[in-house]
Automatic annotation (TrEMBL):
<keyword id="KW-0560">Oxidoreductase</keyword>
<keyword id="KW-0274">FAD</keyword>
<dbReference type="InterPro" id="IPR023753">
    <property type="entry name" value="FAD/NAD-binding_dom"/>
</dbReference>
<dbReference type="GO" id="GO:0005737">
    <property type="term" value="C:cytoplasm"/>
</dbReference>
<dbReference type="InterPro" id="IPR050446">
    <property type="entry name" value="FAD-oxidoreductase/Apoptosis"/>
</dbReference>
<dbReference type="InterPro" id="IPR036188">
    <property type="entry name" value="FAD/NAD-bd_sf"/>
</dbReference>
<dbReference type="GO" id="GO:0016651">
    <property type="term" value="F:oxidoreductase activity, acting on NAD(P)H"/>
</dbReference>
<keyword id="KW-0285">Flavoprotein</keyword>
<protein>
    <submittedName>
        <fullName>NAD(P)H-nitrite reductase</fullName>
    </submittedName>
</protein>
<feature type="domain" description="FAD/NAD(P)-binding">
    <location>
        <begin position="9"/>
        <end position="295"/>
    </location>
</feature>
<dbReference type="Pfam" id="PF07992">
    <property type="entry name" value="Pyr_redox_2"/>
</dbReference>
């Protein structure tokens, strides 16, 4: 059995950040990353942005040489079967056992399946392999149907239209992104997509996926040689739940230091319901920068360095010729104030009179 040390389960920003941070402070303790993804750790935000559109092909977080030079042992394409918090062991599906002194759970999220007839034939866009498959399929297609009006759905639809495909976005709500940002923003995003060449079909759902497109609840048949299921993600808390760690609202409960309810076990990224010091309450953060920040905190805590999660969550998205930047706590708001400005607009979201989020939308300069 390999010598015990630090283990991160997951090769996304949270797992890599935690491992990198711990290694900087403990150069001789074994550090391992176990990941079900066979690809070298990579950045996911560009998958529905530059990468799909034909650019930004270098997605690696670090090179193979960097991991070797920093003595971080990568185990890729490995599925963890279970963790034993009593013996402090991680056991893989193949039966390999790894003892740990400190363990960071950062498995991320899995795409929510499209549960309709033919839904399993729709292409997800969650991993590098998904993005490669979608990019290749789009090269030999003339039409595309994208299901889901969230950030990934909107970005993907705009990119496919920009690649020359006749693209339709099917949105179950009255407007894209309206559930997250409100109806005023939803209407503007609808126009962004239309200006980008996307046909937007709202207030309906897909009831069947066929070989040449989808059928929606209204009975309309929408052409799609390529069908993308951007139907959301679900945090992968299986390992934590089976190990008896405290969970709530489908996530792993952690404190501001990223500590779970089990000794020497931490969690970071999508799977967490984490206490944020600045917010003064538990917060769900589902985006890249937040995961990297939580991984940093987990790595510092495991290394014995005081650290808390106190950053305001945030993310950015690109839809057509516009960039959307959000900072805030998410969740519900009582009021929203939209103000127009040159080349875009801004929105302040308030709850109980307090600003809980801001959205800035700006037009990108012409290339």
């Amino acid at each position: 059995m390999a010598a015990p040390g630090f283990i991160a389960v997951g090769s996304g920003p949270a797992g890599v950040s935690a491992a990198e941070t711990f290694r900087r402070r403990h150069p001789r303790i074994p550090v391992r990353i176990l990941s079900a993804d066979p690809a070298l750790p990579y950045s996911k935000p560009p998958l529905s942005k530059e990468f799909l559109g034909g650019g930004h092909t270098n997605l690696e977080l670090h090179s193979v040489g960097w991991f070797a030079r920093n003595d971080i042992d990568l185990h890729l394409g490995v599925t963890v079967d279970h963790i034993d918090v009593d013996t402090q062991e991680v056991v893989t599906v193949g039966g390999a056992r790894y003892r740990y002194w400190h363990l960071v759970l950062a498995p991320g999220s899995a795409a929510v399946p499209l549960s309709v007839p033919g839904g399993d034939s729709a292409q997800p866009l969650r991993s590098f392999s998904d993005a490669v498959a979608l990019k290749m399929a789009a090269r030999f297609a003339d039409t595309a149907a994208v299901i889901g009006g969230g950030l990934v759905g909107c970005e993907t639809a705009a990119r496919l239209a920009g690649m020359g495909l006749s693209t339709t976005l099917v949105v179950p709500e009255p407007a894209p992104l309206c559930r997250r940002f409100g109806p005023d923003v939803g209407e503007r995003v609808h126009k962004m997509l239309t200006d980008a060449g996307v046909r937007v079909v709202t207030s309906t759902t897909v009831i069947e996926v066929g070989s040449d497109g989808v059928t929606v609840a209204t009975g309309e048949r929408i052409a799609g040689e390529v069908v993308v299921a951007a139907t959301g993600v679900r945090p992968d808390i299986r390992l934590a739940a089976e190990a008896g760690l405290a969970t709530e609202r489908g996530r792993v409960v952690v404190d501001a230091h990223m500590r779970t309810s089990a000794r020497n076990v931490y969690a970071a990224g999508d799977v967490t319901l984490a206490h944020n010091v600045a917010a003064g309450r538990p917060v769900v953060a589902e985006h890249w920068r937040d995961a990297a920040q939580q991984g940093l905190v987990a790595g510092l805590t495991a290394a014995g360095t005081p650290a808390v999660w106190d950053k305001v969550p945030g993310f950015s998205a690109t839809i057509g010729t516009f960039t959307l930047k959000y900072r805030g706590w998410g969740g519900r708001h009582d009021t929203s104030d939209l103000s127009e400005r040159a080349g875009g607009f801004a929105v302040a979201y308030r709850a109980g009179g307090r600003v809980v989020g801001t959205l800035d939308v700006t037009a990108n300069p012409a290339p």
